[in-house]
C-alpha cells in the first residue's frame, strides 16, 4: 500500500483524493487537539480524550451496538444468519463514554461500538478544532467510537478518508474483484445496510471458506495510530479492527458523482430480479446490452443519433433526465 509521511493537511498531494488505490497518510491529523489528547494519555486509555469529547456533548442520542464478551469484539450474525450476535440501542453519547470507562480494564469486556454518527449533530463545535480543508468535496464527517470492536469486511459507495484520532486500528483492504472470495452474507439482512463478509479475518476458517485464501494473497494490511489517516477508494473491501480499550476514528465520505445519481445497488437488485434467472442464451444477450450501454459506453454509443433524440443515451445524465427515468421505472415496478 502506498504511504505518504508527515503530510501537510494544508497542502494535500494532488490527485490522492480521487485515487483508484488506497493511500496511507501518516501524521495527517497529528495536530488535531483530540489527537494531542490521545497522545498525552497514551494509546487506548481514553480518559483525557473522553473528557475532551464531553466538552462538545449536547445530550445527543446515538445508535450504539452492545455485544457480550463471547463475541470478542466481532459484530456479526448469529449461527443460522437469521439475526445478529449483538443488540442495538439508542442511548446518550455520554452513556457510551461511561460504558467504555467502566469496562476499560476488564480482561474480557463486552463489545461497545458507535458507528457512522454525524459529528455536527452529535458533537457540534468539534470540527471547529478538528477538521480538514476538504470542504470543496462537500464531505459528510462522521465519528466511530468503541473498544476493541471489529467491523466485518464491507464496501462503501462513497470515497472514504478515515482518520485515527485515538487508539489504534488495523485496516485490511481488498480490491473490488475479490467479492467471490469473501463469502458475502445476506443482501437483505445486513448489519448496517451493507452486505458484509462472513469470514473472521482475524482467524479465518479456511475449511469453511477455502476461497478466502485467494483473498488473503491480495490483502493489504496496515496499522494506524493517532494522527494517521487512510484513503479508501469507493467500493474497496475493508475490514477494520480496533486494537485498544478506547478507539476514536473520524471519517469523511464523499462521492465523485452528482447527488441526483441513485445508488448502483438499485441496479444490482433490479438485475437480480429481471436478468439473473433468464435462460443462459438470453442472459448472455443482456450481457452484451449491458456492456454496450453501461460498462463499455463511450462517445460513439449514441453518436449516430442527433442530440435531441438521444434522451437517456446522453451522457452524463442531468438531474431532469434522472427524475424522468426514475418516474418511468417506478411506473413499471408498480404495475
Automatic annotation (TrEMBL):
Domain of life: Bacteria
SUPFAM superfamilies reported in the protein's UniProt record: Clavaminate synthase-like (SSF51197)
Protein name: Cupin-like domain-containing protein
Transmembrane intervals: none
Cross-referenced PANTHER family: HYPOXIA-INDUCIBLE FACTOR 1 ALPHA INHIBITOR-RELATED, HYPOXIA-INDUCIBLE FACTOR 1-ALPHA INHIBITOR
Domain JmjC: 112-269
Organism: Ideonella lacteola
Pfam (any one): Cupin_8
InterPro entries cross-referenced by the UniProt entry: Cupin_8, JmjC_dom, RmlC-like_jellyroll
Amino acid at each position: 500500500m502506498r504511504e505518504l509521511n508527515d503530510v501537510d493537511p494544508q497542502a494535500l498531494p494532488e490527485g490522492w483524493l480521487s485515487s483508484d488505490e488506497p493511500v496511507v497518510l501518516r501524521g495527517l491529523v497529528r495536530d488535531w487537539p483530540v489527537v494531542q489528547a490521545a497522545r498525552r494519555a497514551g494509546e487506548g486509555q481514553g480518559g483525557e480524550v473522553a473528557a475532551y469529547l464531553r466538552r462538545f456533548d449536547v445530550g445527543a442520542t446515538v445508535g450504539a451496538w452492545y455485544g457480550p464478551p463471547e463475541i470478542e469484539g466481532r459484530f456479526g450474525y448469529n449461527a443460522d444468519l437469521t439475526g445478529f450476535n449483538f443488540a442495538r440501542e439508542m442511548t446518550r453519547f455520554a452513556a457510551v463514554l461511561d460504558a467504555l470507562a467502566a469496562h476499560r480494564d476488564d480482561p474480557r469486556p463486552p463489545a461497545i461500538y458507535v458507528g457512522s454518527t454525524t459529528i455536527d449533530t452529535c458533537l457540534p463545535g468539534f470540527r471547529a478544532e478538528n477538521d480538514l480543508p476538504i470542504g470543496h468535496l462537500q464531505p459528510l464527517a462522521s465519528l466511530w467510537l468503541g473498544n476493541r470492536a471489529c467491523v466485518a469486511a464491507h464496501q462503501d459507495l462513497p470515497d472514504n478518508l478515515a482518520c485515527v484520532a485515538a487508539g489504534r486500528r488495523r485496516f485490511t483492504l481488498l480490491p473490488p474483484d475479490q467479492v467471490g472470495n469473501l463469502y458475502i452474507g445476506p443482501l437483505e439482512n445486513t448489519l448496517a445496510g451493507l452486505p458484509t463478509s462472513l469470514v473472521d479475518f482475524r482467524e479465518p476458517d479456511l475449511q469453511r471458506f477455502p476461497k478466502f485464501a485467494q483473498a488473503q494473497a491480495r490483502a493489504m494490511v496496515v496499522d494506524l495510530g493517532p494522527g494517521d489517516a487512510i484513503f479508501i477508494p469507493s467500493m474497496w473491501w475493508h475490514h477494520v479492527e480496533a486494537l485498544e480499550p478506547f478507539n476514536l476514528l473520524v471519517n469523511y465520505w464523499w462521492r465523485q458523482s452528482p447527488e441526483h445519481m441513485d445508488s448502483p445497488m438499485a441496479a444490482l437488485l433490479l438485475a437480480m430480479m429481471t436478468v439473473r434467472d433468464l435462460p443462459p442464451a438470453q442472459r448472455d444477450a443482456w450481457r452484451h446490452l449491458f456492456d454496450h450501454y453501461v460498462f463499455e459506453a463511450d462517445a460513439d454509443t449514441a453518436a449516430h443519433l442527433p442530440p435531441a433524440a438521444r434522451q437517456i443515451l446522453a451522457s452524463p445524465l442531468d438531474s431532469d433526465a434522472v427524475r424522468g427515468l426514475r418516474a418511468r421505472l417506478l411506473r413499471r415496478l408498480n404495475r
